[in-house]
């Protein structure tokens, strides 16, 4: 929706615009005037007439907030001009300071995010960094061609600038690596770099606009338009961007496809600026006008409801089941909204409205403190608001539950990929170190467990070494930490079983537990080439766009119980029905909603049985689960049931499920577990089944079953550990030596291990004695188990 305020306009080309508040804008023109536009009263007034020798090119207001906190400094802006100077001016238009900066025009001037530095780019090919007061700090770059546009990186440690047809990312540290690449077939005229999504925009004389990631990889390229791209700008939240050229204004999604195209009669659009709340856009036009645009017609869907933002303060709710329509009116303009779990949460500039989908007439309303809401996330029991100042968890009754805080928190740059919410947990990717995920209790706002964050470490297989002081302990001497791109928390089940899925920079998908009492968390890879993901709203089923197909992990947690089962629990939809890499918007019930590369929505349905199976498993209805699998006759369901039963130590069901998918060695091992003489032995072998060898050994040692612990290590050919335990507990040294000799004889080898040679000299190996000793150990264990069960039954009778 585009509007012009016809009260007054410039007489010459408008070169730059900048917002002071969400409803007040300054514009500069070659007619030497600075005008102030008030959108509430639709009035335009003259701020100041500049001296005749100042022809303005770029304007940028000093940042109002620092890390979400308001700065109390007087409002100033930087104005660059054709005479090689930049000017620091007050809100009243008084020029406080003019600085000789470049030979020829100063083509761009930008404050960094915290206002501690100013960067200017000139026609002379130089890029300079200045202090807040206008003192030269350094000349960052010098080249033979003009620098038309410049932008700060999200962390204010890197600079993006144009160099002819190329783009350059230069870190401020002198020794750091510079990234440079050919971006366009014509001169690059404009760039922008968003602090929330870390994506780069560029537009050039080849009439194309492009989206890049911060490594210089092309994510989207437009087709060639009619005219060169003269301006472009990211919306503050990084979800959309605008592009301006001759008589053309375009609104695009962050992935590149176009939402809307307007053809205002404005001449070239030389500068674009978004208001801080991201609802309004202003453009500086070649014919002396300033064009204003407002984002409307946004849509939200959940089950049978479709909600549309029809005007800036009005929403329409449509129930597609009966075509009932409700109209929601708001006092202020709508900034953000979210619809999920039967609730619509709407943030306006001053208030938050919470609607229940059963009653659209009486919303719960509470005032917002300060700052513009940039993100709303919902879980079943509560929702999370993110504004410039912090994160706040509210109940759907409007009660503030918690407000997590952490050192160096920059709430203003958090996005939906870097924050996840469930009923009991909040996960945040740390922007200062993207390998780290911070975990908080959603109900208290405090860090989970011992307060240590989760670090995504990649262990290289086969790069193991033994600790010489303790030969049994293995450690990895090569660890690689990788940046996390996206995080997601599962939505159902108890809090102590909460899982987090994460996609790293290599596009590998990992799963780990959120609560891992003091132990190093086990992070398991469950997929590769995953571009986006989403958990189901009611069951712990995960879907993802993997390479060029839709993959659904029916029971991802099976990776912790039996990782070989994982490939058998997948449901894969061929990607031929999708266009270029689609993005998952939601996974509700059995419906996955995806946004394609061209902006169209596609829906994919997932069979309902896995969700039912999760429900039966949670409520321990194993007979119903078996009936469901027999009815569905689906191998992937049987595989899920096998994993669920083993996780819950339901051996009979697990045995039947494994038999149904032809896993006979596992069926035999389950029978072996059932035959164990004591509960402790059974538990230890169940842990062994899941690959938790150290835990299994610890369980046996704790129960005083020394022989069983030694035998477990013998079975795994962990000879040194077996000998270490035997020597330490002064028992079964001969057993270890006997099995070792048998093992070496089988392969026709001689003993070379010094420790075994040493003990073999002093210990006699007699298989009859060893067998008798083992039999005695087992009968002792059976006897003890029987006594324990008798004691417990007597106690229960009492």
Verbal overview:
The chain is α+β, with helices and mostly antiparallel strands. It has a four-stranded antiparallel β-sheet, with no helix packed on it. Strands 2-3-4-5 form a four-stranded antiparallel β-sheet, with no helix packed on it. Strands 6-9-10-11 form a four-stranded antiparallel β-sheet, with no helix packed on it. Strand 55 and strand 56 (542-546) form a beta hairpin. Helix 8 (693-702) runs antiparallel to helix 9 (706-715). The longest helix is centred in the C-terminal third of the chain and has 31 residues, at 767-797.
SS-derived structural category:
alpha+beta
Mean pLDDT: 88
Distance N to C terminus: 79 Å
Q: How many helices in DSSP terms?
A: 13
Largest sheet, spatial ordering of strands: 1-30-29-28
The proportion of residues in beta strands is 35-45%
Gyration radius from CA atoms, angstroms: 33 Å
Stretches where pLDDT is under 50 for at least 5 consecutive residues are 460-478
Measured as a percent range, the helix fraction is: 10-25%
Q: Give a short account of the largest sheet.
A: 4 strands, antiparallel
Question: Any idea what the shape is?
Answer: elongated
Number of strands: 61
């Amino acid at each position: 929706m585009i509007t012009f305020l016809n009260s007054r306009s410039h007489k010459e080309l408008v070169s730059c615009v900048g917002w002071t508040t969400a409803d007040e804008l300054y514009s500069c023109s070659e007619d030497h005037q600075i005008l102030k536009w008030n959108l509430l009263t639709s009035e335009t007034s003259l701020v100041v007439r500049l001296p005749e020798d100042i022809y303005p090119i770029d304007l940028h207001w000093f940042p109002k907030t620092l890390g979400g906190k308001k700065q109390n400094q007087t409002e100033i802006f930087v104005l660059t001009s054709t005479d090689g100077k930049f000017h620091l001016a007050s809100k009243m238009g008084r020029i406080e300071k003019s600085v000789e900066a470049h030979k020829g025009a100063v083509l761009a001037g930008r404050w960094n995010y915290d206002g501690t530095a100013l960067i200017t780019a000139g026609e002379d090919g130089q890029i300079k960094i200045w202090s807040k007061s206008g003192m030269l700090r350094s000349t960052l770059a010098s080249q033979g061609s003009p620098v038309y546009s410049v932008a700060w990186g999200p962390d204010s440690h890197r600079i993006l600038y144009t160099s002819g047809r190329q783009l350059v990312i230069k870190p401020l540290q002198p020794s750091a690596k510079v990234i440079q690449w050919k971006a366009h077939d014509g001169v690059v005229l404009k760039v922008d770099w968003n602090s929330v999504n870390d994506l780069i925009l560029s537009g050039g004389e080849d009439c194309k606009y492009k989206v890049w990631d911060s490594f210089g990889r092309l994510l989207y390229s437009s087709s060639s338009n009619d005219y060169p791209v003269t301006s472009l700008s990211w919306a503050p939240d990084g979800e959309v961007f605008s592009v301006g050229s001759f008589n053309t204004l375009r609104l695009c999604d962050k992935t590149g496809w176009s939402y809307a195209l307007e053809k205002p009669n404005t001449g070239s659009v030389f500068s674009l600026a978004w208001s801080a709340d991201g609802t309004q856009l202003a453009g500086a036009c070649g014919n002396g006008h300033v064009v204003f645009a407002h984002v409307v017609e946004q849509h939200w869907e959940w089950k049978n409801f479709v909600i549309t933002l029809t005007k800036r303060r009005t929403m329409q709710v449509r129930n597609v089941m009966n075509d009932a329509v409700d109209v929601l009116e708001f006092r202020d303009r709508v900034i953000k909204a979210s619809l999920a779990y039967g609730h619509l949460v709407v943030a306006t500039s001053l208030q938050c409205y919470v609607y229940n989908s059963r009653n659209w007439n009486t919303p719960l309303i509470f005032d917002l403190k300060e700052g513009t809401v940039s993100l709303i996330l919902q879980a079943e029991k509560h929702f999370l608001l993110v504004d410039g100042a912090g994160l706040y968890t509210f109940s759907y009754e409007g009660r503030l539950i918690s407000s997590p805080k952490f050192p160096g928190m920059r709430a203003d740059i958090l996005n939906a990929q870097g924050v996840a919410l469930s009923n009991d947990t909040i996960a945040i990717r740390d922007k200062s170190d993207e390998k780290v995920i911070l975990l908080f209790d959603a109900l208290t706002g405090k860090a989970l467990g011992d307060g240590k964050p989760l670090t995504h470490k990649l262990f290289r297989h086969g790069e193991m070494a033994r600790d010489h002081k303790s030969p049994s302990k293995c450690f990895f001497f090569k660890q690689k930490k990788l940046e996390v791109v996206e995080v997601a928390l599962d939505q159902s089940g108890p809090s102590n079983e909460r899982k987090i899925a994460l996609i790293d920079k290599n596009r590998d998908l990992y799963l780990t537990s959120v609560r891992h009492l003091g132990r190093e968390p086990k992070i398991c890879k469950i997929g590769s080439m995953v571009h986006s993901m989403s958990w189901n709203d009611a069951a712990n089923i995960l879907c993802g766009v993997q390479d060029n197909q839709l993959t659904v992990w029916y029971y991802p947690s099976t990776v912790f119980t039996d990782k070989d089962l994982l490939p058998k629990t997948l449901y894969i939809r061929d990607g031929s029905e999708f266009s270029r890499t689609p993005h998952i918007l939601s996974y509700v019930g059995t419906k996955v909603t995806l946004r394609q590369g061209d902006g169209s929505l596609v829906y994919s349905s997932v069979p309902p049985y896995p969700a039912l199976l999760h429900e039966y498993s949670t409520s321990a209805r194993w007979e119903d689960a078996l009936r469901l699998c027999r009815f569905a006759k689906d191998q992937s369901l049987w595989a899920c049931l096998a994993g669920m039963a083993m996780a819950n130590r339901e051996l009979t069901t697990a045995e039947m499920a494994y038999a149904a998918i032809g896993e006979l060695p596992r069926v035999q091992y389950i029978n072996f577990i059932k035959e164990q003489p004591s509960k402790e032995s059974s538990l230890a072998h169940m842990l062994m089944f899941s690959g938790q060898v150290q835990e299994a050994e610890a369980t046996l040692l704790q129960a005083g079953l020394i022989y069983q612990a030694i035998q477990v290590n013998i079975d795994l050919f962990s000879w040194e550990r077996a000998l270490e335990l035997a020597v330490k507990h002064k028992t079964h040294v001969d057993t270890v030596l006997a099995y070792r000799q048998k093992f070496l004889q089988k392969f026709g080898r001689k003993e070379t291990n010094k420790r075994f040679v040493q003990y073999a000299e002093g210990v006699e190996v007699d298989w009859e004695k060893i067998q008798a000793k083992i039999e005695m150990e087992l009968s002792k264990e059976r006897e003890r188990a029987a006594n324990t069960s008798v004691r417990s039954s007597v106690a229960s009778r009492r």
